[in-house]
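Quick one, tokens below:
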């Protein structure tokens, strides 16, 4: 059996959209055929009628293909009174390893919704609307705009030592000695301490507290108690 991949690159294909609400650019898998390796680059998507999404990746077919879809250097917004609900939406069950880079988006619901894609790279985007949301692991840095949700969001800020953001200590993945994960849901303990995150004690994929990870605390009183 031969596997055929749909690989398409789109450049400057949309100037203005008008008419019925829908999606500006849609990549969707067919029966047994994954929609991966697609690239939407350097488009000016200005909708004159309100639409649901500017760009949507909807691949529901699992594949061993390494790479995913990407959207790079696009400008997406609603023209005049029109709105774009979600600037970029990745919600197919087979979405993985997508890349959203240097897009300028103004959306009324979410600028980037990474609700299904695992392992996405979100870099250098300017989000002018309600921000970015994910329910899966994504690496996120160099962006402007809000993070609406992202309990498993990973934020890399350094080259030699990685710094991430998450709501809990990692339970999966491979990390290096010295990597840090900053707590996105901090609270004050009875001892007036705040759990600010976790620092990596080993290199590898183990996730045992006080073996592979150590808690990082900050005192809320001075001097520290």
């Amino acid at each position: 059996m031969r596997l055929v991949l749909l690989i398409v690159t789109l450049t400057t294909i949309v100037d203005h959209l008008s008419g019925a609400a829908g999606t500006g650019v849609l990549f969707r898998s067919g029966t047994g055929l994954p929609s991966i390796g697609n690239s939407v680059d350097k488009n000016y998507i200005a909708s004159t009628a309100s639409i649901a999404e500017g760009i949507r990746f909807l691949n529901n077919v699992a594949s061993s293909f390494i790479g995913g879809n990407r959207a790079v250097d696009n400008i997406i917004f609603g023209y005049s009174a029109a709105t774009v609900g979600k600037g970029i939406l990745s919600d197919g069950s087979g979405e993985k390893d997508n890349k959203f880079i240097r897009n300028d988006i103004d959306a009324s619901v979410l600028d980037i919704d990474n609700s299904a894609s695992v392992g996405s790279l979100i870099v250098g985007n300017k989000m002018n609307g309600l921000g970015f949301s994910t329910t899966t692991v994504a690496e996120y840095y160099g962006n402007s705009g809000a993070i609406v949700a992202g309990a498993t969001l990973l934020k890399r800020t350094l080259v030699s030592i990685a710094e991430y953001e998450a709501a809990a200590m990692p339970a999966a993945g491979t990390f290096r000695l010295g990597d840090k994960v900053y707590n996105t849901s901090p609270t004050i303990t009875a001892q007036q301490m705040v759990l600010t995150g976790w620092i990596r004690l080993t290199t590898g994929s183990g996730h045992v507290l006080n073996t592979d990870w150590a808690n990082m605390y900050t005192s809320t009183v001075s001097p520290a108690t």
